[in-house]
Amino acid sequence: MKKLLLFILCVWSVCLKVSPHDYMFKHLEVKDGLSNNQVNAIYKDSHGFMWFGTKDGLNQYDGLVFRTFQKENSSLGNNFITALHEDAEGNIWVGTDTGVYIYNP
What we know:
The protein is of the alpha+beta class and about 100 residues long. The chain is built from one helix and seven strands. It has a four-stranded antiparallel beta sheet, with no helix packed on it. A hairpin with a 2-residue loop joins strand 2 and strand 3 (about 55-60). The longest helix is centred in the N-terminal third of the chain and has 16 residues, at about 1-15. The radius of gyration is 21 Å and the shape is elongated. It starts with a helix and ends with a strand. The mean pLDDT is about 85.
């Protein structure tokens, strides 16, 4: 009985150490290029870009660097982003607190 219990414990401990679902998380913030640390919306588009809608602009992230869209440097009408969605044509619909804007890549 002791050998069976020892065998079960060994198999169980090996199963706990080998996980097919190991995830890596990366913390991104203003010092990394994000326009603001208050993120209201996150979306991954069909090209693999991550989009972050913040209190101070729309951010496109390619895994290395951010590209920031704000009212001051684009046709975006407001910097407070509340929602993100991609349509069938690949356009990014950007919801703000004053309206909806469409980004055509």
